[in-house]
Design goal:
Layout lengths: L2 H16 L14 H8 L3 H11 L12 H16 L3 E2 L7 E11 L4 E6 L2 E5 L5 E4 L6 E10 L5 E2 L4 E2 L10 E5 L22 H10 L4 E5 L2 H4 L3 H8 L3 E4 L9 E5 L1 H8 L6 H8 L7 E27 L10 E7 L4 E2 L8 E2 L2 H20 L7 E7 L7 H7 L9 E7 L10 E5 L7 H10 L3 E2 L15 H5 L5 E6 L8 H14 L15 H19 L13 H12 L1
Helix pairs in contact: 1-4, 2-10, 2-15, 3-10, 8-9, 10-15, 12-15
């Protein structure tokens, strides 16, 4: 028997032996009896135990395609099997193979900027983080630098930073985020859209034939510090192996002070560059800078897995439709050669979401009857690499996208007790909002808007992959006000996590954590999903939402 499987069996046996009777749930006043059984079965001790195991040093930070990540996938599949759920992966298994390739930038990589004929060599991880997305072991680049503002082409907002300028073979300097506005009809006002995400910037530049992109990092615009960028990009980055889309030879971020030196080449400051980009009249600027890069990369082809289970619906007609629950199990793994603690355990991000997914799955499986529609549970890989696992799943679903009524995601929920406010990023864009609102009230939750809309949370977690194929989708998140504490306490807890633990080795399991809130949110998630699985009509995006037409097309596809 493999050591990892033996470990899973021992851990599972221990959890079963030590499970305590769960506290009474905050059951709704008119709950479906089977739904109430599922909700009442939720046990915070189970959630805590799952988090403790998934975030242990044994799993080595659950890196994508690494030993610890594979153990996590095996563990989750074992739990699904113990619950009696049906495998929904490949060939009658719980595993859906996701072909990937890992790229690690070698220290011998050399990137130099020639600014007004003077060389400036950039230090990897200090001045710049860089990756060669072409999946080549070595590549060379010698190209002019062109500043393209935010690097956005958005016809619906009459915005085009490229202005039909030929940027083929060039390196593009650009800003993260998008033009600032308080107008909800212009890039959705203060809320970040997908146009502001680094993933979009790279994709759009590649579509224009650019050889590389240099993103200017500024904490206020990126909504996270340089440590997050360095920790996320300093090790191996994964890509889907079978993709044929154009890729950049140089995908990179630079520190703001490097941007200052680049701006000086045209007699400007970095702040001047930002100001210039905030106008529709902005036109690309060829900087007096050449980019010379010798990229050396370690290339590692590998397979990772999404872990997918199904509870078949009870209605003969509606069981061919589904509700989807998701959470990502991967984190950043181990950084070889890093001094001190080099294991990125990812306790909050996202052992918590996986633990909730497992307890929700167990709750559904414990009910005497299933809801009308089928329920899918997906623990996905590669979220930290750019939503890779959920993106792959969205294009290889067990059910057609047009037959999945709703997708709910759980990601990075802090065990700080029972929240009085919650955030459901994206539900307000769907016809399911009123149901979510009334259900939240039953639990004593007050739904609040995104506390940091400029961070673009809707486009940063796995539910976005499902929205992208038309499925109404949102994430369940705690708010900032907790029972028994003033609002400032929750704000301080979130700030402390963001500054001291997010994407850092210090995101570790704490035995003093209070998992009662995660249990209550799991019960809430069960009721939301059960109701969506029971109502006759499919959930839709609201009129004029960016995903409305994709939803209509996906439903038409299944009718053909």
């Amino acid at each position: 028997m493999k050591r990892s499987v033996l470990i899973l069996l021992l851990i599972t046996s221990a959890f079963a032996a030590n499970s305590k009777k769960p506290p009474a749930a905050a059951a709704p006043t008119e709950a479906i009896p089977a739904m109430r059984v599922a909700m009442n079965s939720v046990n915070p001790n189970n959630i805590s135990a799952h988090v403790q195991f998934l975030a242990s040093d044994l799993l080595e930070g659950r890196g994508t395609g690494q030993r610890g990540g594979d153990i996590a996938a095996d563990y989750i599949a074992t739990q699904f099997a113990l619950y009696g759920l049906k495998p929904a992966g490949d060939n009658g298994t719980f595993m859906q193979r996701v072909p990937m390739v890992g790229v690690t930038t070698d220290p011998s990589t050399n990137i130099t900027l020639i600014i007004n004929d003077k060389p400036l060599q950039l230090r990897q991880n200090d001045d710049i983080v860089s990756m060669d997305e072409s999946q080549s072991a070595t590549s060379d680049l010698d190209a002019p630098l062109v500043y393209v503002g935010y690097g956005i082409v958005a016809p619906e907002y009459k915005w085009n930073d490229y202005k039909d300028v030929d940027v083929k073979g060039k390196v593009l300097l650009m800003l993260v985020n998008e033009p600032p506005s308080d107008d909800p009809n212009f890039f959705k006002g203060r809320a970040l859209t997908y146009y502001g995400r680094w993933t979009y910037k790279y994709e759009e530049a590649a579509r224009h034939g650019a050889a590389g992109v240099i993103l200017i990092h500024q904490p206020e615009m990126a909504s996270y510090g340089w440590d997050v960028v360095r920790n996320s990009w300093g090790g191996e980055r994964a890509y889907i192996r079978t993709e044929n889309a154009p890729k950049l030879k140089l995908a990179s971020w630079i520190q703001f002070d490097v941007a200052q030196k680049i701006a000086g080449a045209i007699g400007k400051s970095a702040d001047d560059l930002i100001h210039m980009a905030n106008s529709r009249d902005f036109k690309p600027i060829t900087m007096k800078v050449e980019v010379k890069a010798h990229m050396v990369s370690k290339i590692r082809p590998f397979d990772s897995n999404n872990v997918i289970a199904e509870l078949q619906g009870s209605d003969e007609k509606l069981k061919n439709e589904a509700v989807l629950y998701s959470a990502h199990y991967d984190h950043l793994g181990i950084r070889p050669g890093m001094a001190g603690d080099n294991i990125y355990n990812g306790a909050v991000d996202n052992a918590t979401g996986c633990a909730m997914l497992l307890e929700i799955a167990r709750g559904f499986a414990s009910a005497p009857t299933a809801p009308n529609r089928s329920i899918l549970f997906a623990a996905v890989t590669g979220e930290e690499q750019g939503l890779l696992g959920s993106d792959f799943l969205s294009r290889h679903l067990p059910f057609p996208a047009g037959k999945i009524t709703l997708a709910m995601n759980f990601d990075g929920i802090r065990p700080d007790g029972i929240p009085e406010t919650i955030e459901l990023s994206g539900v307000e864009r769907t016809t399911y909002y009123l149901t979510a609102y009334s259900t939240a009230k039953e639990f004593g939750f007050d739904i609040k808007p995104d506390s940091n809309p400029a961070a673009g949370q809707f486009y940063r977690s796995d539910h976005f992959s499902f929205a992208h194929v038309g499925i109404p989708a949102f994430s369940v998140q705690e708010g900032l006000k907790y029972k028994g504490h003033p609002l400032d306490w929750g704000v301080q807890r979130e700030t402390d996590y963001d500054e001291h633990r997010y994407h850092q080795p210090s995101d570790q399991f704490d035995p003093t954590w209070d998992f009662s809130g995660l249990a209550e949110l799991s019960r809430f998630g069960i009721e939301l999903g059960w109701k969506a699985a029971s109502q006759q009509e499919l959930v839709q995006w609201l009129p004029n939402d960016e995903f409305e037409e994709i939803r209509k097309a996906s439903e038409q596809d299944v009718k053909k």
